[in-house]
Amino acid sequence: MSIMRAGSKAEALRFLASGNGVDSVGAGNVGAAVLAVELDYETGWQDAVELGRLGEKRGIKVQYRGQESIAVRSREALIEGLATPKTTFRQRNLYCQFDLGTLADHELVELEAKATRLGDYILAGHLLRDVDDVW
User: Fold this and answer.
1) Which one of 49, 55, 89, 95 has the lowest number of neighbouring Cβ atoms within 10 Å?
2) Would you call 122 exposed, middle or buried from its count of C-beta atoms within 10 A (0-12, 13-18, 19+)?
3) Domain check: are 41 and 71 in the same one?
């Protein structure tokens, strides 16, 4: 299943208009892709019902998620991940799979401040349930 990330309502509408959903498979287009559109913008939650109904008519799932869970394997991965430009509107919960106690107090404070500016949270790794990405 192809998942398309929409950064705006207009982009989501374009994906829905051009996508080949389940309905097209039933119409004799064997092998056509089943698409899902993820709404990844601030007001996506407001558009989710309307776009979901439109997508349902075309056999395309529309979903909105306000956050994602990221397993962070090391101190270096955390520093690098927070330094990389953020490409999602979603809040990222950064579950550190390394001992946060190994960070100097001032370094942890700086990393937490940077994460907060980005709308993200640094959390202990044992709290992780589902993983969306790994750093």
Assistant:
1) 49
2) buried
3) no
